[in-house]
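Hello,

Our lab assistant flagged a job as stuck in the queue for most of the afternoon. It eventually completed. Since we weren't sure the result was trustworthy after the delay, we are filing this so someone can double-check. Below is the sequence as submitted and the structure that was eventually returned. Let us know if re-running is recommended.
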Amino acid sequence: MNVLREELGQAPRSSRKYAVNQAVADWLDGGLPGRSERTKEAYKHAAGPMLAKIGHRPPRELTALELRGALESVSGQFTTRTLQIARNSLERAIRRAELIDVPHGKTGRKSKSLTLAQAQELLKAAQGERLYPYVLISPTTHALVPRRGTC
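-- returned structure --
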């Protein structure tokens, strides 16, 4: 337990002067690579009214109760979706300020699904065959594909 306490004591900490407003501004400026200006403006618009209430607080001193109060105080003005965006934006900005944001990794594997052209070719090739109805229905319903362990 002492080792964990020592490790926590060595963790990077933000300055007491660093406020939530600054964390969100920094996140909007540099924490959204590849996002359009329109997306950044939407995030800024969603978080704005909450920042008016809690933006002066240092991120590490912000409590869940304060965040909930800020969200509830603007809930009459915005849709649930906008409130979700505001909360997520604030969470991501604080996480970035605490230096625990995960960078983008490598791209995932290529899809194994058929393209529209491949599916059309398959249907054309199967016409007149005994299994044509199976080929026609199977990809769209998955109903005819036995599940693993049921056979």
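-- support follow-up --
The delay was a queue issue, not a problem with the job. The result is valid. DSSP finds seven helices and no strands in the chain. The chain has a mean pLDDT of 77.
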